[in-house]
């Protein structure tokens, strides 16, 4: 089928209004049919050799989320200490996760051995399986935004916390843990831009024509 | 803003009808304003610490695409030899790239040192910058589909071919090379499923509740 201008504009709106959400979560439960829609969207990501290496662990239990939050607190102390002076002070003011406030957590893993040792499209670039699983993350993120759900990637967390808490086999790779929930509001600009941590790079600086550094 | 059911369904349609396109490309040029819209969508991907580590090299020159195609042919010979018997025969029948037929190529890189040595959110999980750049890939892919453009990821290609042909500094990482163009048609099912290489995994097999392997 062909999409028209209004479909295209809808996608661009969803892309532009997606945020990495770590605050303003509401406790409102997310209906199971909506969670299933999110995961169906993630499952339709592209994957190298069609290996679909991802799995999704759906976490609602507050005691599980409490353990993951404890893991974040430890990792965040270590992380804050890597910054100096004003940056360190600013870092400590930022809200960087919503593990306990958001009623839903999803952990995405990658099974690098799925479909066997030799995978079409992965013969030259072995990281393609991990990258496929990340494409599923972005589908999930856009689906969440279209469902008016905030989602945030909690990357300040040792993988060991997730392996242990969620009983994940060690031969899988952990892609990420994501907090998802309804929110009071979506911010117009990313928090890190809003609070003076990092500006948006001008797009023109990122575009090159024909070869590197040809503008 | 809040999205409604029709917006949500539009996103899901785009996600479900996106394909990894390697054939049926038309030579029709893609207007520059459309290319800019694609890259704007990619540039609005999430990124760890808002580091926006990606760059986009836009390639139209047929002689450049010819060189990249030569790189694919070498890599594909090596790759075919990794399969045995019927799989090897089937592999050789598959069309796995559209480098020369598609009028547009985009190479996406990742600058892992952008914004400095210590990056918020990357202190514990260093691969987050690469994963951010892959989120940009998926935004690009969905934007292309919404613009009725086919896009394929050419992963059977040594990174050296791209470093050399596109004059990319060696301290950057190459995420991928993508073929983009209008197409005669979009396939309803992925080629690898259609031609009996790999089936779609049932979604229910990928979903776990609360901990690994709890269905």
Describe the structure.
Chains A, B: Its EC number is 1.13.11.79. The structure is a homodimer of 215-residue chains. Chain A contains eight helices and five strands. By secondary structure, chain A is of the alpha+beta class. The first copy, chain A, has a single domain (19-181), classed as 3-Layer(aba) Sandwich (NADH Oxidase). Chain A has a four-stranded antiparallel beta sheet with strand order 1-2-4-3, sandwiched between helices. The first copy, chain A, is globular, with a radius of gyration of 19 Å. The mean pLDDT of chain A is 97. Chains A and B meet through α1, α2, β1, α3 and α5 of A and α1, α2, β1, α3 and α5 of B. β1 of chain A pairs parallel with β5 (207-209) of chain B, so a sheet runs across the interface.
Question: In a nutshell, what does this entry contain?
Answer:
Chain A is built from eight helices and five strands.
Keywords:
homodimer, 215 residues, alpha+beta, NADH Oxidase, four-stranded antiparallel sheet, 5 strands, globular, oxidoreductase (chains A, B), FMN (chains A, B), Nitroreductase-like (chains A, B), 5,6-dimethylbenzimidazole synthase (chains A, B)
What's the oligomerization state?
homodimer
* First-last Cα distance of chain A: 35 Å
Order of helices and strands of chain A: HHEHHEHEHEHHE
Number of domains of chain A: 1
The low-confidence parts of chain A are none
Structural class determined from secondary elements of chain A: alpha+beta
- From the 3D structure, determine the CATH topology of chain A: NADH Oxidase
Q: Any idea what the shape of chain A is?
A: globular
Look at the structure and name the CATH superfamily of chain A: NADH Oxidase
Q: Beta fraction of the residues of chain A?
A: 5-15%
**CATH class type of chain A:** Alpha Beta
CATH architecture of chain A: 3-Layer(aba) Sandwich
- Alpha plus pi helix count of chain A: 8
Mean pLDDT of chain A: 97
Gyration radius of chain A (Cα, Å) is 19 Å
The number of strands of chain A is 5
Which strands sit side by side, in order, in the main sheet of chain A?
1-2-4-3
Keywords (chains A, B): Flavoprotein, FMN, Oxidoreductase
EC number (chains A, B): 1.13.11.79
InterPro entries (chains A, B): BluB, Nitroreductase, Nitroreductase-like, Nitroreductase/BluB
Protein name (chains A, B): 5,6-dimethylbenzimidazole synthase
């Amino acid at each position: 089928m062909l999409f028209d201008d209004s479909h295209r504009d809808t996608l661009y709106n969803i892309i532009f209004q997606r945020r990495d959400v770590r605050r303003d979560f509401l406790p409102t439960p997310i209906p199971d049919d909506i969670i299933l829609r999110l995961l169906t969207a993630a499952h339709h990501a592209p994957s190298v050799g069609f290996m679909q290496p991802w799995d999704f662990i759906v976490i609602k239990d507050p005691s599980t989320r409490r353990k993951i939050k404890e893991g974040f607190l430890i990792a965040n102390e270590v992380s804050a200490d890597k910054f100096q002076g004003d940056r360190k002070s600013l870092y400590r003011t930022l809200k960087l996760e919503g593990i306990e406030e958001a009623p839903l957590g999803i952990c995405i893993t990658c099974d690098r051995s799925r479909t066997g040792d030799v995978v079409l499209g992965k013969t030259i670039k072995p990281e393609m399986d991990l990258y496929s699983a990340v494409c599923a993350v972005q589908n999930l993120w856009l689906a969440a935004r279209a469902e008016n759900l905030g989602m945030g990637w909690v990357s300040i967390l040792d993988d060991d916390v997730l392996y242990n808490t969620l009983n994940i086999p060690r031969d899988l790779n952990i892609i990420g843990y994501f907090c998802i929930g309804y929110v009071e509001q979506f911010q117009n600009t990313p928090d890190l831009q809003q609070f003076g941590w990092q500006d948006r790079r001008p797009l023109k600086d990122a575009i090159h024509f024909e070869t590197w550094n040809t503008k």
